[in-house]
Queue: 2 jobs
Job 1
Amino acid sequence: MYVKRNYSLWMTVRWSKKSLINGLIYSALIVFLYEISPIPFSLPWQPISVIGVAVAFFLGFKNNSSYDRAWEARKIWGAIVNDSRTFATAILSLPGSEVVFSWKKEMIFRHLAWLVALKHALRKGKSWEHNLPVEKMVFTPAFKEEIKDGLNPEITKYLSPEEWEQIQTYSNFPTQLLKRQSLELEKIHESGALDSYKQVWLHQLISRFYDTQGMSERIKNFPFPRQYASTGLWITYIFCALIPLGLLDIFEQSPAMHYWLTVPFSGIIIWIFFLVDRIGDFSENPFEAGYNDVPISSITRVIEIDLLEMLDEKDIPEPYPVENGFLM
Amino acid sequence: MYVKRNYSLWMTVRWSKKSLINGLIYSALIVFLYEISPIPFSLPWQPISVIGVAVAFFLGFKNNSSYDRAWEARKIWGAIVNDSRTFATAILSLPGSEVVFSWKKEMIFRHLAWLVALKHALRKGKSWEHNLPVEKMVFTPAFKEEIKDGLNPEITKYLSPEEWEQIQTYSNFPTQLLKRQSLELEKIHESGALDSYKQVWLHQLISRFYDTQGMSERIKNFPFPRQYASTGLWITYIFCALIPLGLLDIFEQSPAMHYWLTVPFSGIIIWIFFLVDRIGDFSENPFEAGYNDVPISSITRVIEIDLLEMLDEKDIPEPYPVENGFLM
Amino acid sequence: MYVKRNYSLWMTVRWSKKSLINGLIYSALIVFLYEISPIPFSLPWQPISVIGVAVAFFLGFKNNSSYDRAWEARKIWGAIVNDSRTFATAILSLPGSEVVFSWKKEMIFRHLAWLVALKHALRKGKSWEHNLPVEKMVFTPAFKEEIKDGLNPEITKYLSPEEWEQIQTYSNFPTQLLKRQSLELEKIHESGALDSYKQVWLHQLISRFYDTQGMSERIKNFPFPRQYASTGLWITYIFCALIPLGLLDIFEQSPAMHYWLTVPFSGIIIWIFFLVDRIGDFSENPFEAGYNDVPISSITRVIEIDLLEMLDEKDIPEPYPVENGFLM
Amino acid sequence: MYVKRNYSLWMTVRWSKKSLINGLIYSALIVFLYEISPIPFSLPWQPISVIGVAVAFFLGFKNNSSYDRAWEARKIWGAIVNDSRTFATAILSLPGSEVVFSWKKEMIFRHLAWLVALKHALRKGKSWEHNLPVEKMVFTPAFKEEIKDGLNPEITKYLSPEEWEQIQTYSNFPTQLLKRQSLELEKIHESGALDSYKQVWLHQLISRFYDTQGMSERIKNFPFPRQYASTGLWITYIFCALIPLGLLDIFEQSPAMHYWLTVPFSGIIIWIFFLVDRIGDFSENPFEAGYNDVPISSITRVIEIDLLEMLDEKDIPEPYPVENGFLM
Amino acid sequence: MYVKRNYSLWMTVRWSKKSLINGLIYSALIVFLYEISPIPFSLPWQPISVIGVAVAFFLGFKNNSSYDRAWEARKIWGAIVNDSRTFATAILSLPGSEVVFSWKKEMIFRHLAWLVALKHALRKGKSWEHNLPVEKMVFTPAFKEEIKDGLNPEITKYLSPEEWEQIQTYSNFPTQLLKRQSLELEKIHESGALDSYKQVWLHQLISRFYDTQGMSERIKNFPFPRQYASTGLWITYIFCALIPLGLLDIFEQSPAMHYWLTVPFSGIIIWIFFLVDRIGDFSENPFEAGYNDVPISSITRVIEIDLLEMLDEKDIPEPYPVENGFLM
């Protein structure tokens, strides 16, 4: 997530330079062909403009949906923050005073293990994502390290080696960690230190973690439907392919100008439409370990700080760093 | 669900070739009639373009609604994942230690039976769906097999023959399976191993399964209202019928060109509008056993794996295969 | 609810023939007046087209809202299905084994009485609805019978004559039926067969029925605000009144044509806009006993079948019939 | 709330006659100045039409938000209906049989006192509302009386004089009435007639009333943000100011006509845009004691009837009257 | 939040004068260059108008999202009002009569401490906010004082010096205050004056405060995605840069006029588009201590008054003042 006020125009252009350059080259080519060809193949602008409106609608719909996906992802991780605080508070205050502190700490640590396991699980690449190689994340070196190191160094801070080893025999680590939490609660219940009523409330909190985990996985595993994304892309291509042909027709009336004005003007229109498409495209998958991601690393860190402070731990980690304007 | 980054332009064209070809033929016909007829029946473009905007609005609304239906369907099945994990965890940890493991396993197996029964029930054809014959699902052979084999081989893995036989006497299998789950809980409650409080929480989980089942059935049984779909279709037809007439009027000013330019240009515009309509049309029914479905087979498999691993079963099935880019 | 794939073009035209014919007559009249009048009162098209865009926006908003109303109505009745199944399951499994089966059956029957009472209450006409006389429902004879017969034959299947008589002394039958359910639960609680905890859960289910009943009544009793509906209608009228005047101006340049082309072209545009308005108008009130209603009769039947099967009744009614493509 | 099918065109025009007349006068003035002035200050229409599209977007957004506010207000009051029925049913059936009926009646009466107190509180004027003087509500005489009489005659039907006097020492009557309900429940709990579990459920219902009360106050106290409303208004003004200038340019080509055609045509376009703006403006505040309000008086009456019938009271009030097509 | 009916046109212009002036200067410059340059670099208007439609779409999307953010923020703080009332009522009525009043008062005071701590935490500047220096808040002197004084004077009214000191050792004050509330409840529970069931209900209320706190932090910490905001800004810039070039082309046909008409007309169009962009921009961050904020200071005051009145305190603060039309 970018946290400065605005991307500069220069960054924006550089980021989408491919479509700008291709647009210019393509337009120049059309003008050149038009010049050398005996056939005046220009097209009237009016019908093109109707296509333009339809494309604008489609891109609007796509951007809206992408934004909704990102915003929902952020909401889900917001809920994880809230429920984590509630859960830790509940673990600290609801069981009877005969429950030892070390058990409470273990529960909260296992919760943090669930959290980091989920964070890393959400960043495995998908066939529809951009899958930028991690080496290219040059703007965010600390984040690059985190991705490279993987789950192991983070989870072993919170889980005993035996338990970590056992969890690794399963397919979905977070799911099985939550099951373990539930069995631990039953143990305390059987010992008499947690009545049935409080146990169910704690189980309902675990149910909420299953919910937020599953909702994150849903956004991760169900892309913006590819048929919509592809249609949007192809009609943008067709519309842009028609633009210089339409401009030729308009500029034709003042032949002196059209050699050099059709090309930049056409290039700019093409670039605007591809830019709008690309913005949606790059915001679609909020967990793809890219610069526009929902910042789940820093959210995780916020939860770690709050929960470790609740345990009055001494060794509180720093807030996640902002690197070159990016908070990941 | 297609899981590659984009449908190729070629696939897109092939999939909607009918409207492209028809559009071209129709336009050619109009041009031909215009040539041979003494009446200059072309139409001005400006009013057509207002119709175009209205049609673009309508299609935007239709696409939006279709997308919402698909996304809601995915959310419902995401909730089924979450609740299934919660339910299995609850069955394993909430009843007292005097409850035998075989009962717990039976409960979780009956839950999986409910799941596969629901999956198959959602795939029975509806009069407003596309009802592609299953033999034509050539891109996804494994899925084709699953549909052909039907519910029986899947449900008998999880249900005793007697129970399965009894369930078949009812109209709605999943509904009656959940009632059975509830009666089983009461049995354990009467034996004293599950207090009233935990029983109610488990009953609330069953209530959630009634909810998600009913919500799936709602999307299945209540189509995007046919009056909206039909209106969208007919006004698209009328708009497209007018397009070549309007282009004729524009191209008229340069008669040398209009024989061959009206036809492809008109064909492309017609194709774009029908493509946008068709995308919505094919995304409307997320459970019609077609390529753009919400992938409930693979979601079912994910649940099976998680729950069988919770039971520490040995025989864990493989994740559902991606076939030619499709995950069903 | 229409359940075939699409209304045919012919049905669509016939259903909205009034606006097509009026549009044609009006346009012909304008052309005629223009011919005989010495004043050339045509109007430029460009400003009309801006009005057209504004009207398209407004109709889009109206259609969207109508659709949302229908979809919400369907969701509410989906929730009634889910909660009914949950409630019946709860009645069958939660009370202690000392509770006699006849009481359980009575509770579930009274619930079905609530359901049919609600169904009929939702179909009383409102001053803003279309109020098509029931005799005109020629496509759905079975449904026509149901409406004519009214509540009595349906509710007496599920309620004793004494109770039915007593309920009729109140204004709102469903409300008082639910109160009765609640008092019955207290009776069982006082007898010791239902602990406080389960009683509250059952009361919460009754609370959900109050919710869904009240939500249905809200949609029934609060129309799409008439100020929006009227504004939409009047600006459509004004826009359509201007259309032939604008076309005259365009066709003027080729006088040979405008006698016969202005009229059909104008008629088609007028028809399209009125059709789009009319679709929204006829989908606005999802419980007006019309062809586009949410099919609450068949949903009611689904619940009856499921609940009677749960009671292992012998006399299970048939699913609701589809008549001429309509499921009511 | 208007409850007839449509406002007549005449009512609509009369209601917005100011903008129609002003639009005509302004257009006439421009035409007159254009005639007498040596400077041909007309403007090209094309750029004006782009502004028109932007204005149409903005008004669409404003109307949408206004509608959402009204609809949410209606939902909240729908929830008040549902929760009131649930609460009354709970008061009648959950406490043990040793609780006297007079206490139950007192609780339900105090609930009705909360309801009417909330109704009147929502109708105090706000600085951004239209604040039509109550004397001008000529179409709804019964409603006018209700507003004039104020809270006192309604609340004293349900509250003892002592309690009413005490409540008046606080700022927010409904809030303190609910606190009182909660203390009453504790009293019954301490007497042993309401176990802890049922008490909490009843307290949760009181929490719901705090929710719906607070949600009503939120809509009442937080207007559609004035920066959006004002921007919408000012850009509509600018757009409308430009309209006759643009029309002059178009009509210029046929000078014989433009004296008399620019004026009415321009007036109609101006009127349409102001009408669309005004509709949103007048639907923005659903509790401003105006004709387009959410009908909270009649909803209150519905609740009174249902609850008094549950108590088997003899003196049931009549449903709220529809006056001249308005239900308030 | 502005609470008068409309910002005056003058205020609106003054607030956005920068874009109006820049637009005029830029347009004048273009006209000047066009005059002195031998190259006729004007551009056709039609393609510019398609860009205009795309920009209008994008700004519509941006304004919509900004509004949704503000409205959600208001909803969250509405929920804080409701839950605070419920919580205070619960503290006063649910614990047994052996609990001393001073403990109840302490709990409610600590809740108010949480509230003011949250209010101040939400007003720390963010890198993407406008961060208007507090000295410039000349219209709202009382609010300026509040911001300058900071948290300390407000929180010490509700928290003992020792507790306040201890809370300051943590990163997130509100989080740790809620944990403290939960531990206090356990203390009362262990003393026997609050049964397990009521304790869990009170813990659920604390969970709701964690939710609303976290939701406020989510809106505060997750801006409207900067990639969308920047794209919107840059395409508005490009569109506006093209406007005078397009107008030149149109006015060219009547050269006598274009010196002085292109400039103001172009300036007005540029200003409208930047105004619409700016409105969204300034409504995006509802907690940035600016004039368009959600009025959390006055909401806090409302809660303080209600809760102190519930405690029958003598020293009730005044409602928050409206200063120059602003309620903060």
Job 2
Amino acid sequence: MELTAEQQAEITEAREQAAITRRATVPELESILLQPLPVLDHGFVRVIDYMGDDAAIVQAARVSYGRGTRRVQDDAGLIRYLMRHRHSTPFEMCEIKYHIKLPIFVARQWIRHRTANVNEYSGRYSILDKEYYLPEPGHLAAQAKTNRQGRDEVLSAADAARVLAILRDDAERCYADYETLLNEDRDGNRLDPDRPGLARELARMNLTLNTYTQWYWKIDLHNLLHFLSLRADPHAQYEIRAYAAVMLETVQRWLPITAEAFSDYRLGAALLSARALAVVRRLLAGEQPTPADSGLSAREWRELMAVLGHDG
Amino acid sequence: MELTAEQQAEITEAREQAAITRRATVPELESILLQPLPVLDHGFVRVIDYMGDDAAIVQAARVSYGRGTRRVQDDAGLIRYLMRHRHSTPFEMCEIKYHIKLPIFVARQWIRHRTANVNEYSGRYSILDKEYYLPEPGHLAAQAKTNRQGRDEVLSAADAARVLAILRDDAERCYADYETLLNEDRDGNRLDPDRPGLARELARMNLTLNTYTQWYWKIDLHNLLHFLSLRADPHAQYEIRAYAAVMLETVQRWLPITAEAFSDYRLGAALLSARALAVVRRLLAGEQPTPADSGLSAREWRELMAVLGHDG
Amino acid sequence: MELTAEQQAEITEAREQAAITRRATVPELESILLQPLPVLDHGFVRVIDYMGDDAAIVQAARVSYGRGTRRVQDDAGLIRYLMRHRHSTPFEMCEIKYHIKLPIFVARQWIRHRTANVNEYSGRYSILDKEYYLPEPGHLAAQAKTNRQGRDEVLSAADAARVLAILRDDAERCYADYETLLNEDRDGNRLDPDRPGLARELARMNLTLNTYTQWYWKIDLHNLLHFLSLRADPHAQYEIRAYAAVMLETVQRWLPITAEAFSDYRLGAALLSARALAVVRRLLAGEQPTPADSGLSAREWRELMAVLGHDG
Amino acid sequence: MELTAEQQAEITEAREQAAITRRATVPELESILLQPLPVLDHGFVRVIDYMGDDAAIVQAARVSYGRGTRRVQDDAGLIRYLMRHRHSTPFEMCEIKYHIKLPIFVARQWIRHRTANVNEYSGRYSILDKEYYLPEPGHLAAQAKTNRQGRDEVLSAADAARVLAILRDDAERCYADYETLLNEDRDGNRLDPDRPGLARELARMNLTLNTYTQWYWKIDLHNLLHFLSLRADPHAQYEIRAYAAVMLETVQRWLPITAEAFSDYRLGAALLSARALAVVRRLLAGEQPTPADSGLSAREWRELMAVLGHDG
């Protein structure tokens, strides 16, 4: 992630502005407000704005006239209760707005979450930056064999080098050809004066899917936590997980009580099916249930034993 | 609207808290933050929190690194352009949270707007306040004759008095019986020690639809403006319009440029159908179109002539 | 639930119409299509239309050119996999439309589910039916003591009779006064020729919250299952649970494979928090965890032991 | 668009299945059900399923017990009234499901419409087809000068040939390299036995944005019409407009009355701002308003005069 001097100056100037407010304010989050937090090789997450704090969740749950807080202890108890019993509406009363730079193929996974507001940098209106994602060698992995969706062993150094050379060459060539098609540099000057530039909305189709895009993305806390529970999960693709990890840290700064409840009741929790619960009950009763008599598939059995820390 | 001393104290205390923030801040809105703005006889609208300002719309539309503002003049031009061309996503980048007290029959219209977050005071968990809506005599009107949905002439003083007596008596009796069913006062003391209180979730069914409820309601600006365009409209029922009018004033404080564009392109605008446009073109060409040859229904013709200020 | 002769005739006529279609069709659901399924004393659930079947979920998950089905066995495996791993989008590819008659206080809980389409019978436009909900004595219960939200022991016959008398009298009187305010019978004839009728949109505020309303309600399968998981839950109020139970039966007719997976992975499942899982692991390792050293609240401990069928 | 023999056989087989249903059925739409309707060079739109007909809109608006239809004449009047007065909920009672093949850069515009259900072909799980979009020469146009977003004059034959050569070469090379990275053919056989294949979720990032993807996309009628009003508009990019045009034809088959109302009140209509209306009123009064005294920008003035068919 390299910001231009101009971008850096804009951020610095914006961070220097301060105002007095009556709104719920969180100093821990204010301290990183507007700053780009690096993700992948050229991406970032910036917290642009936020609404509410842990107390605001309590305030909404109680439909209060004043601030939500009674005592931090009480607030934590209520927040844990709300999270445990899936009372989602008080968590919708907090909102956060991010500025995110991310590869297009990650953006395509991300946008599947529909309960957010988004403004993407327009490739019809503007020229996209020359930035594309190249994985670190340690993240280049072979197709998983047991799972049609996912990665397995990391490639050898030689194989990784071969892959990166292909990715780099194709991205470079496609971007160079994008510029040729546009026939225009970033300042709007025509490169070849004797021919027209192709419309931006058409030229962009020549770019590869690892090209970076950027957007403003705004979401309420309940839906953010749902996003994080899916995208910080080991089943998610590494690249989007890298963003989720950074965003989870911003939530920990912003709403420490909620973040802890989320960790306990979502991230570290497990949903046990009716059949899985029956197995657990039999185990606790001293029985020896087997995969065959459990009604679970082989895969479910393995997953359950892993969750239970049991050797099955 | 009469707040209890305790509620008033909570609000006063909350308003006295101030913090420094790097977020976009709007002094004109801060000045009324948390204060109840009266609506109808016992209702109110309170702005609890907000995110963004006019510049934040510009900032999102440009996917900026810094504040959106270049010059106020430019910002206004862009906001008007976005509004005119239905580019709605930048307007979703502002958010506002209200605390609202309103009659249940108004709440039932309001909740039809689904793109908002809401936490309502729970009649399962708590006892509802003894407050019910009684219209001012000037708002008691007969059923419209030309329109199956709507009001017509205001009732005479005698008829209004008769109506109000019925509404008051039934609301009073139903609330008194609600208390009898609960068998519990507001402090949780049993009234009749010899019998149990009916569960709150059941007792509430005895209340009338003009009983007041309250909720926290949070929405993005785009959807708020959509709500206002429908609910500040003369076709909306007076009671919900009264809320929309007060909320529109909060938008004018918060986002003066957007509020003006909204007034020009939505509230004061008219959608002319293809057939209506054909009539206008014929009028401008000096022709004399008639309802019969226009393809418009009699009602559409009247509405068009009213919009055009034409005697048709 | 008593339909008028006219309503019954309309339903009978509609059920006699048949057409040939290339769409996915489910005879088990067709057999009850359009028929009112009774709920509570005057309510009903009618399935009006539906889109898709179990195979359509598979078809969408595979983005198939043909029908989804390979073998029923495979389909069931994939549907269970999708449900287990929270791949919700294929379940959104089925849709169902209901016509529902329900008390207003139930409608107010129901409408909190925002991801549905709804057309409610309009009290501005039409006169509401004289039908109100009176619980059966067996469902009249005292306020729960351990839980601020919920019911406890059923009332004695004498107490129940007292409660029902109050509910009936108030509903009767309020409805009679509603008619007086309207000054109009169901055929539009004025009752008292010497005074005007109050506008319907105003008169309705005099009705009690147990008055029945009705609506068309349409939702995709994923969101319907979410609705059912919350509303068929013992924490939900009995009255809305009664609707959820009937709707769950319609899902079992419509999508037997999905309904079974839903039963296993949602209705009969339990979400164990990180702390709860730690307790289970200790139990399986032969340790004796206690509430005090578990990090669980007393209530969470009780709930966990109940789920595990363990005496704690 | 070239389907494989297997795909064509699946479609043919699916179309041959027929069932009896009590649901609302539209023979005009059934006749094209499941058939691919070509769009662009390799894309298509297939109607997979639908719910409702014109009468279903009326039925929901009236919350009817029987079919909506009284007389076609009445239904048309009501549908026009609902469309004119923005009563959107009855239109949400119809639903349609499409299978669509489209270039990724079009999919990225499309997915901004959030009120739909979507299942996309997964590049993590499967290998994408070797199909990429190459515009016809007549659609290759220069960047618009007066409008930062859009196209202007069509390129000369020579310029177009140059552009197409670049687009084709880059897409071909990137796809060939994608196969090299995967090291696997479509039947899952390894190409080079001595090295591993890169995970599919990574290899796909090498593809260009004109590569075709496909998805199942399901939406209610109200939101579909909103989509079409924006995407069948001349301001939309040609490529997505091509899809909107074909989908509009499917709506005309499905719901002829609604389609006609939509054409009159949306597609052929114009929203006149308060200032624009003032200009029209002055013109009708015989005055000579000028851009300068109108309060309109130069661009708004031109657009208004175009709408009015006036020489300004």
